[in-house]
Amino acid sequence: MSATPGARWQVSATRRIEYDLLNVADVFDPRSDALLSMGRVQDGRRFVVVDACVHAHHGERIRAYFAQHRIDARIITLPGGEGGKTLDAWLEVLRELDDFPIHRRDEPVIAIGGGVLTDVVGYAAASYRRGVPHIKVPTTLMGYVDAAVGIKTGINFNDHKNRLGNFEPPRRVLLDRGLLRSLPPRHLRNGMCEIVKLAVIRDAALFGLLERHGAASLANAFQDEHGGEILDRAIGGMLEELAPNLHEEELARKVDFGHTFSYGLETRYGDDLLHGEAVLLDILVSTAIARRRGLLDAAAAGRIFALVERLQLAPELALLDAELMWQSLLDRVEHRNGLQRVPLPAGLGECVFVNDIARAEIEVSIHTLNQRTTSSHDRIAEC
Ligand SMILES: NC(=O)c1ccc[n+]([C@@H]2O[C@H](COP(=O)([O-])OP(=O)(O)OC[C@H]3O[C@@H](n4cnc5c(N)ncnc54)[C@H](O)[C@@H]3O)[C@@H](O)[C@H]2O)c1
User: Which residue in 75, 110, 130, 193 could disulfide with 276, CB within 3.0 to 4.6 Å?
Assistant: First the structure.
């Protein structure tokens, strides 16, 4: 019998995505069961990947934790930093994982580190045996409020950031802000740039919190009460944006504020310019554009610049380059399916999307920013 001409089969399915994020105090305290709260504990094994800096600070406690719970743990380390987000790192995790067979369903891989480590390990977990579960423990502010919150994984490839990767939800995200204590100040400021992004584009109350308490919270690595409030509010806001659009079917995303011109800057400056630092430069140019278009009044724009100054985020305005940023915008047009879809602030905490930014507008905005800096003796309090 031959096949029926014209026969057609159709498959339609949805994959349910469910994970939780949990504030935990002292995640490596042997009395805490948070790290083992998912999966098999009796005769259990765990494959654990730890950022090398985090291992230097907490390695002994991490080993003691698993020993205390009688878990057979294979603990490997990976270097942090953008240079570690490579195909080689991804392969190394896979080789080690293949050498330490874990149960496919109930022994989740545990990723403990910054955005680089959780992106690499998330991608490896998604690839191994077509997907094994993983748990994330972010240890940088960037990871805490951004990289570990959503479902994107990835590695850099062919000189492009995040060119390989996928959407793979973790099973659980454990948030222990105590881990931020050992984070160098530059990396605290780096993560703060993403919090400023959320405040400007979607949350005026968070903006007010940052104005009142942001500098003090940064100074004590978010260990104070207000620091906790800022973190909770940032994560809640981030999730409200991400959750309805986990697979980015909607390409106009408020969380892309600061992520249009920054792409080119990050690609050019590599490890010398951190993700959040590039995002901050983009935020400033976008704010200047919004001010020129009358989307922001002088007072609102002034508050944004004043906050950046109060937090001592110290943007490297000298890196701004109109041609580079224009090319970056063109690249984002490809990424956003043919339209610019650039989020701009329209009043503090509000957002509009525009599709008509011209190269000249970027140039003039950079010029305005530089002029403000010079005329106010390296301060950018007003626009
Ligand atoms: N998946 C996503 O949705 C998403 C979102 C935002 C950013 N990212 C990615 O995140 C990456 C940046 O992440 P990052 O800023 O966390 O960088 P990172 O992971 O490189 O960490 C920064 C530095 O801090 C060190 N470190 C980490 N935790 C520490 C701690 N507790 N104490 C002391 N040192 C510590 C690391 O070794 C590294 O040197 C970028 O690659 C970016 O693309 C991903």
Answer: 193
- Does residue 84 lie in a domain region? yes
Residue 148 alpha carbon to ligand 1 centre in Å: 10
Neighbouring-strand partners of residue 73: 46
Residue identifier of the C-alpha nearest atom 5 of ligand 1: 147
Long-range contact set of residues 277-280: C-beta below 8 Å, sequence gap at least 24: 277/189, 277/190, 277/193, 277/315, 277/316, 279/193, 279/194, 279/197, 280/193, 280/196, 280/308, 280/313, 280/315
Q: What is the CATH number of the domain that holds 254?
A: 1.20.1090.10
pTM of this prediction exceeds 0.70? yes
Ligand 1 pocket test, pick from 49, 255, 275 with the greatest ligand atom count within 8 Å of Cβ, gives: 275
CB atoms near residue 28 (< 10 Å): 22
Please check whether residue 108 lies inside any domain of the structure: yes
Same domain for 361 and 225: yes
Cβ–Cβ contacts within 10 Å for residue 293, how many? 16
Which range marks the domain in which residue 344 is found? 185-372
Residue 108 token pair: 């989740």
Question: Catalytic pick from 85, 136, 152, 254?
Answer: 152
Does ligand 1 lie within 6 Å of residue 127's CB atom?
Answer: no
For every one of its 383 residues, what pLDDT tens digit does the chain have, with 9 covering 90 and above?
678 999 999 999 998 999 999 999 999 999 999 999 998 888 899 999 999 999 999 999 999 999 999 999 999 999 999 999 999 999 999 999 999 988 888 999 999 999 999 999 999 999 999 999 999 999 999 999 999 999 999 999 998 889 999 999 999 999 999 999 999 999 999 999 999 999 999 999 999 999 999 999 999 999 999 999 999 999 999 999 999 999 999 999 999 999 999 999 998 998 899 999 999 999 999 999 999 999 999 999 999 999 999 999 999 999 999 999 999 999 999 989 999 999 999 999 999 999 999 999 999 999 999 987 655 434 333 33
Number of domains into which the chain is organized: 2
Domain boundary among 164, 182, 200: 182
Do 163 and 198 have their domain in common?
no
Residue 177: inside a domain, yes or no?
yes
Of all protein residues, the one whose alpha carbon is nearest to atom 8 of ligand 1 is: 147
Q: Which residue CA neighbors atom 7 of ligand 1 most closely?
A: 147
Task: Residue count of the chain, please give it.
Answer: 383
